[in-house]
């Protein structure tokens, strides 16, 4: 050991699964630590000769929007271009059959869940603000002020 360091190299080999897991944290740490090197390549980047060269585009999604295969003529905003992945057409059947596992296993993208409770988050988000809360309605049978009744601590009767 010289000057508090040991010579050598430690390699972490892992696939992305869920956002915020260990591999994501190490990748974020590597942005500020020059002693950490992240090698993040997909098969078609390493061995392009295995593919014909034609690609289709996949929107990988984020915390609020689900992933989807983009149409050939679909335009994506410039600030969202980082969320679009070009994938060789050889993988299109795999992505069409089951998009989330394909993103994870073939594309190396961490996804929220393979079987999320609410898949159509766009529809859920569209529902907010459409109907008044039951607590604000005059015809509800809350005693007195509804907001006060909802925020008051409940006493358990035994």
Structural notes for this entry:
This protein has 158 residues and is α+β, with helices and mostly antiparallel strands. It has helices at residues 22-30, 43-46, 92-97, 99-105, 121-127, 146-151, and strands spanning 55-59, 68-69, 84-88. It is flat. The N and C termini lie far apart (68 Å).
Structural class by helix and strand composition: alpha+beta
The backbone outline, from C-alpha atoms, is: flat
Radius of gyration, CA atoms, in whole angstroms:
24 Å
Number of helices: 6
The helix content is 10-25%
Given as residue ranges, the uncertain stretches (5+ residues, pLDDT < 50) are none
Total beta strands:
3
Strand order of the largest sheet: 2-1-3
Q: How large is the share of residues in beta strands?
A: 5-15%
Distance from N terminus to C terminus (CA atoms, Å) equals 68 Å
Provide the residue-averaged pLDDT.
79
Order of helices and strands: HHEEEHHHH
Describe the largest sheet.
Answer: 3 strands, antiparallel
Task: Kindly list the characteristics that best describe this protein.
158 residues; single chain; 6 helices
């Amino acid at each position: 050991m010289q000057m508090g360091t040991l010579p050598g190299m430690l390699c972490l080999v892992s696939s992305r699964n869920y956002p915020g897991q260990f591999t994501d944290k190490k990748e974020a740490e590597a942005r500020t630590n020059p002693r950490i090197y992240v090698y993040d390549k997909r098969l078609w980047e390493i061995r392009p000769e295995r593919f014909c060269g034609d690609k289709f585009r996949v929107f990988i999604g984020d915390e609020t929007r689900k992933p989807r295969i983009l149409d050939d003529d679909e335009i994506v905003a410039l600030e969202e271009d980082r969320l679009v992945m070009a994938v060789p057409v050889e993988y299109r059947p795999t992505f069409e059959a089951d998009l989330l596992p394909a993103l994870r296993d073939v594309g190396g993208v961490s996804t929220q869940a393979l079987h999320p409770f609410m898949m159509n988050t766009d529809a859920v988000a569209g529902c907010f603000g459409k109907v008044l809360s039951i607590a604000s309605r005059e015809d509800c049978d809350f005693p007195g002020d509804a907001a006060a009744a909802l925020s008051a601590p409940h006493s358990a009767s035994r």
